[in-house]
Specification:
25-stranded mixed sheet
């Protein structure tokens, strides 16, 4: 190698002197021309210098790259891949079609230092760029990343572009795909923390994720989805091996959910800290067992509009429609108490009892109360998926405490009023189409007529239901009921 460089230098000197001698005989070379010649020569030498790695033994280089990627970046490649050296845009080795334990990589660019290409044993990696990778992540992979994040990342960046993360369940089935536009991770020496930054998309929703942790085990995760007006910030502090605590802040639409929590022996105990939902105060507390997932939660909402629960795009409905609750490995018992002082509300109070066990979801014993008229109680309820439909089946018992107040609310003609105490019926509600069907209707244990049932069908399209339409149909039903 030294002999090649020496011969090249001698060639350059002879060429320059030859040009100078000829030009001196004929005319004087201007300073500008000398500069141009010098630049061309320097550029030529630089390009030659950058090309030196092409002379390295390919197998030797491959082994060095594999070793350094493992030691410095924790990237463990298989030994079977195609590697080539590229000068542009900066000197780097391009590895194509390789893979690790859980990642398939189309292109992996290893950018190297230009300090000393004359010594083939002094290869130093500056950064790594991954392009077109497919990451397969199982539950155990998250545990591995969590443990890895407690150690110091490399101060040299790993960049990831145009890649995918396939989230899989224990049966190796894909449950969701995260598209990565760009991401990077490295150790920030100035601020002394590990940093992982990602811009991506999930369920066609663009989002940004930033994860950072200091070596004293303080962690922070930020997730932003501007399209949903969603922002999540979680700060985590590890006290010792058995005890951790943290603060979680969720901002979505007009709601701010702030939670303080402690984790001990895989049990999370949490409570609200100044949270609000649509400008309504919310107080909650509970306990969560992580493995297996078991949640016990109590919520109290103050001055909340209860009718918001039944709008098609409510947070409650969107969460139900997500299908996340249909999991045989989770257990949930949630009690929600809602108080409303809104004058235009039908219900003043609601007590919702949500239970999830072995994939079965019920709202039994839930109650909706109108202080002036009566209450509705839910029983024999079941929420399930059927033929791509999300169906709630439930029995409702409507107890009327004050019929005069009821008829006053409905603007019912006095000559049509009847003394009704109880109404029982079964409902079948499709969350996706927002359609509702009423069956097995009994008023004070009396069957109703076919004509009565035909009028009830006017309520089926819940998208068109409103207070004016409901009053009209209910008064028609009261007129049809024989009493």
């Amino acid at each position: 190698m030294k002999k090649i460089v020496k011969n090249f230098n001698n060639f350059i000197k002879k060429t320059i002197f030859k040009v100078e001698n000829k030009t001196n005989d004929k005319f004087d070379v201007s300073n500008f021309s000398k500069y141009i010649i010098a630049i061309i020569v320097v550029l030529f030498i630089y390009i030659f210098y950058l090309s030196i790695p092409l002379l390295y033994d390919k197998n030797s280089v491959q082994n060095k790259i594999v070793t350094k990627l493992s030691a410095e970046f924790n990237i463990n490649l298989s030994n079977s891949f195609d590697i080539s050296y590229r000068i542009l845009p900066k000197p780097h080795y391009l590895i194509k079609d390789t893979k690790t334990t859980s990642v398939e990589i189309k292109d992996l660019a290893v950018y190297i230092s230009q300090n000393n290409f004359f010594n083939k044993d002094s290869i130093r990696i500056n950064k790594v760029v991954i392009e077109g990778a497919n990451f397969s992540l199982l539950k155990d992979n998250f545990k591995t990343f969590y443990k890895y994040s407690e150690n110091k990342f490399s101060k040299k960046k790993i960049k990831i572009n145009n890649s995918n993360i396939f989230l899989k369940n224990n049966l190796n089935e894909v449950i969701s795909i995260i598209k990565i536009s760009n991401a990077f991770l490295f150790f920030d020496e100035k601020n002394l923390f590990n940093l992982f930054d990602l811009n991506g998309e999930v369920f066609n929703i663009p989002f940004k994720l930033k994860y950072q942790n200091t070596l004293d085990l303080q962690k922070q995760i930020e997730i932003k989805a501007p399209g949903l007006k969603l922002e999540i910030i979680n700060r985590f502090f590890k006290k010792d091996e058995d005890l951790s605590n943290g603060i979680n802040n969720i901002s979505i639409l007009s709601s701010d959910i702030n939670t303080k929590y402690n984790i001990k022996d895989q049990i999370v105990i949490f409570q609200s800290a100044g949270s609000r939902v649509y400008n309504s105060k919310i107080v909650y507390n509970g306990q969560l067992a992580i493995n297996p997932f078991d949640l016990n939660l109590k919520i109290k909402l103050y001055n909340y509009k209860i009718s918001n629960l039944f709008t098609p795009n409510s947070i409650f409905n969107e969460f139900i429609k997500s299908g996340l609750l249909f999991n045989e490995n989770i257990s949930v018992h949630t009690l929600v108490n809602i108080e409303s002082t809104k004058k235009d509300e039908i219900f003043n109070e609601a007590k919702i009892d949500l239970r999830i066990l072995n994939g079965k979801i019920s709202f039994d014993n839930s109650i909706f109360i109108n202080n002036n008229i009566g209450l509705i109680e839910v029983s024999n309820s079941d929420l399930f998926l059927e033929n791509d439909k999300l169906i709630l089946s439930a029995n409702l018992s409507i107890d009327i405490k004050n019929t005069n107040r009821l008829y006053s609310f409905l603007n019912t003609n006095k000559r049509l009023r009847k003394n009704i105490k109880n109404i029982k019926l079964n409902i079948i509600y499709d969350f996706l189409s927002n359609e509702i069907v009423f069956k097995n209707i009994k008023i004070d244990d009396n069957e109703v007529s076919d004509q009565f049932l035909n009028v009830v069908e006017g309520f089926n399209d819940n998208n068109s239901n409103n207070l004016t339409k409901s009053r009209k149909l209910l008064n028609e039903l009261i007129n049809l009921y024989a009493g």
